[in-house]
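Hello forum,

I keep getting stuck at the same step: I have a sequence, I want structure tokens, and every attempt I make locally crashes halfway through. Rather than fight my setup again tonight, could one of you with a working pipeline run this one for me? It's a single chain of 275 residues.
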Amino acid sequence: MTPNFYIFFGILGLIFGSFFNVLIYRVPITLEANLKNPSDKQSFLKKISYPSSHCPVCKNTLRWFDNIPLVSWIILGGKCRYCKTGISFLYFFVESLTMLSFLFVYWQYGLTLNALGWAVFFSLLILLFFIDLKSFYLPNIFTYPLIGLGLLMSLLELSGINMITSLLGCLLGFFIFFFINYFYKAWRGMDGFGASDKILLAGLGSWLGFKSLYPIIMFSSLFGLGFMLVMITFGRKYKMETMLPFGPFLILSSLLVYIHLYVYPITFMRFFYEL
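Reply #2:
Ran it on my machine without issues. Output:
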């Protein structure tokens, strides 16, 4: 591993992070537009790629030097060059997070197919985390590839688990949430989970195996409950019945599981894998 490759992966992460910001902003808007006008025949790809980058307030097209990852946000002080409207720190954060994830993958796996697969894994999780957090969407264009690539990685013996473990993780992940939601809806008359949460859990199961589903579900539930209690305690307009995007909590829990399995064993996590 040489410093030059770290620089390369860092720059690559920044470029992809900048592109992810576009997807995080435009994919939910495009999905909403498709729901309102399903007869629109314009391709999904064209909708998210047009128009070119611009300020959503003053509509001025951004020049190339206003789109340099991290640098432009810092130089402009987090504001539009033209109308001085604030630019969300989220753009800076997503670019930084993607860069760090690419650097981590290279540090962990080097120049291997494993690195390519896990880079895609972390990229999909970043996209799903922030899209769900902002808009309550877990788009199938990201969850289905997560499942497919997880199964493929296990088939090629690149993900650390075998194909059977991956397939069981995928199927159990889907049906656990399917049946929980089925009985919850029969009891309360409303969905307990979004339709895509079970697809996301199936994807996580395909990468991390069926034994990881228990800690993922348990910790995501605890994270969600803790978040809700904090919001209620500090006077936000939240109730226990308030809907929360559950995808981010599933993703955070899956990262905790990943760290335990592949980076550094966490003592309290061992219990789940000894059952």
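The chain has two domains: 1-111, 140-275. If your local run keeps crashing, start a new thread with the error log.
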